[in-house]
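Lab notebook, page 48
Experiment: co-folding of the full assembly
Goal: obtain a model of how the components sit together before planning crosslinking
Operator: M.T.
Materials (sequences as entered):
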Amino acid sequence: MSEPLILEARDLHKSYRMGAGRLPVLRGVSLQLRPGEVVALMGASGSGKSTLLHLLGLLDRPDQGRVLLDGADVTELGQSAAARLRAGAIGFVFQQFHLLADLNALQNVLMPRRIACGWSWWRRAGRERERARAILEAVGLAGRLRHRPAQLSGGEQQRVAIARALVSAPALLLADEPTGNLDSATGADILALLLRLARQRQAALLLATHDAHVAAHSDRVLQLVDGTIVGAAPGP
Amino acid sequence: MIRLVLAWLWHRPVQVLAVLGVAIGLAALLFPLSVMNGLIAQDRAAVRGTLSDLLLIPAPGAQPARFEPYRAALAGVGVIEACAPHLIVYAVRVTDDSSGSLASTQASDLNGVQLVGIDPEAELAATDFGAYLARARLAPVADPLRPFAVADDVFGRPGALVSDSLAAVGRLGFRVGQRFEVGTLPPVLPPPGEPLEPNNFSFTLAGTYAPDEYHLGMDRIYVQREGRDGLHFNLLGPEAPDFTEILIRLRPGVSYADGKSAVLAALQRAGLPAPGGDAGGALETWEERRAVFLRGIMMERRIFTLVLFFIVVVAAFGLFATLSALVREKVRELGILAALGYTPLQRGALLLGAGAAGSAAGALLGYLAAYGLVSQHRAFEGLLERLGIVIFPKDLYVVQGLPALWLPGQAAFLALLAFLTGLLFTLLPAVRAATLAPVEALRYE
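Observation: model returned without errors.
Model output:
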């Protein structure tokens, strides 16, 4: 019996209003992810990688098609329900890190836990802090807990972002060009860290990139061209 | 969420200006309002004058009203501390040039007076008449219990008390021991067609008193009510009532409503006619007697509050402007929060929280600043005087100095209103934050 799917996209279409007409970005994308699997989504700039990640992360809705998370159809979820699902089940890593500038590294990592815990946060704050410290240690930032993003290098900021994405132990990790804003050496470190932690935690990782070197480290590679997946290949 | 709100506020100094705006707006409302409260308290005291808590005007009966049965009826009522009868007669002062003065609209209000017959001891117990006597400037009486005594009047005319202001009017030039004449209508009017004979009588000035009413009615001349020197005996005669109203002072803590009920019950027990209704007469509180003035004062305060509250509204608009700027500034962070799992409601609440924190801080600061100013208003006034600013010049105003009166309930209510106004102005930015599309927000530059 095949392993259950953590994520399935069926025939996703998405277009944006452009003047009087509409600009199609995705034209019938289908894909599947299994727990612990690392899949690289390759394509040139403007090919629709980020749009696809937004649809799969429930930040946006497709014009057509379905998104199934852990077997449940989540396409039509309202904004609030989608947000609650994201808080527990989906982690994001962005190219531009997207840390909250007014909070320090520890507070940034704690933010998804505060959101997920709701009112029970006040009971669990101590445990959650320990958890966040541990994951910041795991990404090599044990000595930078109280530093704000502006006091961290690009690589350190992305490490914080990775820690934040993993702190809730999500089943699905969506990374949009996670090394795109880093120099090649730092990028390689970050990529290695992301892959290691995702595999350790059995999180399915969908990694949007246009860098073939990044794709080389994944289990599978999907090629997105003009809004359509034109080829799928197993990783090296 | 609280940590993030505080971080947003802490790292944006411009937010502090908005908070200060609310604080200054509220203080600018509360301090003048407290001064107005002080003025109103003074005005209320002035408007009340020597009126007691309750005023009983007897219902007219077949026989002229007599005070004694009323005194006996009210004597045993527990809630009553004291009561005093008044016998009031309208009169005209007769002076050498009275005909000319009466024809003059400017002088006629000086000539028309109320002759008020009182029982000094009862009056002192039931009203603040003693304070009027004590404050007299021109001719204070030596013994408040015998205020109408005139030592050197060889003709033995009854003594009378006039107000300082009446005694000081132009050429009238009252002085103690001087005789003056008043004319009244006869107690029983002649049949139609018969001539109306004036009913004149002379008094000797025994002293003056200092009223604090601001000319709410005619000048009053106090005389003895009863006895050989009394108004009843000398000007009205036995067919006239010996009192026209009774002033009743209630014991401390007794409400006016309870006092009224007790008086009505006492009158009923004594078989005296109940005042009010078709029967005539009245039982009213001093506030009901002066309702027109008090309503005017309160209306003035309401308008004043309303006008000044616009300062708070303008200040709250500052909060709206800075929070709107905050939303614009934080669009991407709101998108990040959405990606992390913040629901639209939580994003709106985040902004509302920022607004609430700003409004609450502003309202609290404004409340404390106003309280500080009110409690130190004498020092504040002294500071202004040293700078050459006199708020109420002595030659123009009866009021001397800032009579600030802090009413904690009123101040707290207005602080709450300021807080809610600030909160209201954060609604729009909060709605904007809630309705941001997460993807658009993440892409926002």
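Interpretation: Residues 3 and 34 of chain A are 7 Å apart (CA to CA).
Next step: discuss with group before ordering constructs.
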